[in-house]
Amino acid sequence: MSRIAYVNGRYVRHADAGVHIDDRGYQFADGVYEVCGIRGGKLMDEELHLARLQRSLAELRIASPMPLSALRQVLREVVRRNRVENGLVYFQVTRGVAPRDHPFPAGPVKPSLVITAKRLNMARIQQSAEKGVAVVTMPDLRWARRDIKSIALLPNILAKQAAREAGAYEAWLVDAEGYVTEGSSTNAWIVDKFGRLVTRSTGPEILSGITRTVLLETAKREGIEIVERPFTPDEAKSAREAFISASSAVIIPVVRIDDTAIGNGAPGSITLRLREAYAKVGVLS
Ligand code: PLP
């Protein structure tokens, strides 16, 4: 079965899909995106992803490519045509096609919409969840509006590559004041020595992760105390537990930060409890 992509109104074979070379996404990374998990063929936390997409578009003054009701339908159709039971749907909106020039195009331009879906290897994710992963810390070189889910990801890519070359799964990015902002494609969490869940509060410094939002609700329901504040790499290294969150794998325990083992070097009990609790509530639509 060949993969199918949605590109500007058409369902096309993934291998044949393409956009115009003057697309501002291609020329300037002038666009935004979302990644929504699929479990049992259903979109996870769909409405939260759609709301964040609309916010990102509004912040960059990019028009909506289609009404939300239509977008919901196309997302479902892409998932259906690709027969994805467990995986991801990726949707990207750019400002559209116009002769290359930095300012916004003068006339009305139709935003471009591309949607793809892919299966995830759930066994491999489960393995990472059981074993835990290593992260390495490095300076956060990104722009000042990390709350916008922009397709401009060069610093994130360089950080992830550096992490992989260091034998780690993820990079934890550290701001000029010495505090962890988030991972290159995940939010960062620790459990402090009092058993409190700690993650940085939302603002321009981090992406407000959808998994983060749902996890905070889950933790509240589980009666786990939550503190939203920045933490340093040193505090994280002496934390009881650490983990990362993202739509792809939900929660992955962190068992090593740089050269320091976290806790007893195995996934922590609160981390695993949250992972289990999320699995029960995570598919909201
Ligand atoms: N932070 C960054 C920089 C990300 O790229 C992502 C996901 O791609 C996240 C956090 C996690 O966000 P979500 O839970 O919405 O997937």
TrEMBL record:
<keyword id="KW-0808">Transferase</keyword>
<keyword id="KW-0100">Branched-chain amino acid biosynthesis</keyword>
<dbReference type="GO" id="GO:0004084">
    <property type="term" value="F:branched-chain-amino-acid transaminase activity"/>
</dbReference>
<comment type="pathway">
    <text>Amino-acid biosynthesis; L-leucine biosynthesis; L-leucine from 3-methyl-2-oxobutanoate: step 4/4.</text>
</comment>
<keyword id="KW-0663">Pyridoxal phosphate</keyword>
<comment type="similarity">
    <text>Belongs to the class-IV pyridoxal-phosphate-dependent aminotransferase family.</text>
</comment>
<protein>
    <recommendedName>
        <fullName>Probable branched-chain-amino-acid aminotransferase</fullName>
        <ecNumber>2.6.1.42</ecNumber>
    </recommendedName>
</protein>
<dbReference type="InterPro" id="IPR036038">
    <property type="entry name" value="Aminotransferase-like"/>
</dbReference>
<comment type="pathway">
    <text>Amino-acid biosynthesis; L-isoleucine biosynthesis; L-isoleucine from 2-oxobutanoate: step 4/4.</text>
</comment>
<dbReference type="GO" id="GO:0009082">
    <property type="term" value="P:branched-chain amino acid biosynthetic process"/>
</dbReference>
<dbReference type="Pfam" id="PF01063">
    <property type="entry name" value="Aminotran_4"/>
</dbReference>
<comment type="function">
    <text>Acts on leucine, isoleucine and valine.</text>
</comment>
<dbReference type="InterPro" id="IPR050571">
    <property type="entry name" value="Class-IV_PLP-Dep_Aminotrnsfr"/>
</dbReference>
<keyword id="KW-0032">Aminotransferase</keyword>
<dbReference type="GO" id="GO:0008652">
    <property type="term" value="P:amino acid biosynthetic process"/>
</dbReference>
<dbReference type="InterPro" id="IPR043131">
    <property type="entry name" value="BCAT-like_N"/>
</dbReference>
<dbReference type="InterPro" id="IPR043132">
    <property type="entry name" value="BCAT-like_C"/>
</dbReference>
<keyword id="KW-0028">Amino-acid biosynthesis</keyword>
<dbReference type="InterPro" id="IPR001544">
    <property type="entry name" value="Aminotrans_IV"/>
</dbReference>
<dbReference type="GO" id="GO:0005829">
    <property type="term" value="C:cytosol"/>
</dbReference>
